[in-house]
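Me: I hope this is not a bother. Any chance you could explain this protein sequence and its structure tokens? It all follows right here:
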Amino acid sequence: YVAAALSECEYAPTALVRRLAEEPVEIAAPLLTRSNALSDIDLIALIGRHGLPHARAIARRKELNPTIADLIRALERPTLVKTRPLETVT
């Protein structure tokens, strides 16, 4: 409930919003989708720490930075990278 209420606040306490955004996505989702207190850097860090569940919630933001949107799309559809075998040194 608190996360949903704070997500609507124009001047929500940034530290509290950041702390609640670290919670499981079931709690953090309102903040991830709507809070202006989370910067682009905060969003990228949250994706890095919490992965796809948080990324999917962040993807629902209005006016999402295109770079973050690209990152989320890449996470949704990872591709295999073909690597060559390591050469042995003799």
Remarks:
- The chain has a mean pLDDT of 87.
- The helical segments are 2-7, 14-21, 25-34, 40-50, 52-58, 66-76.
- Residues 2 and 20 are 9 Å apart (CA to CA).
- The longest helix spans residues 40-50.
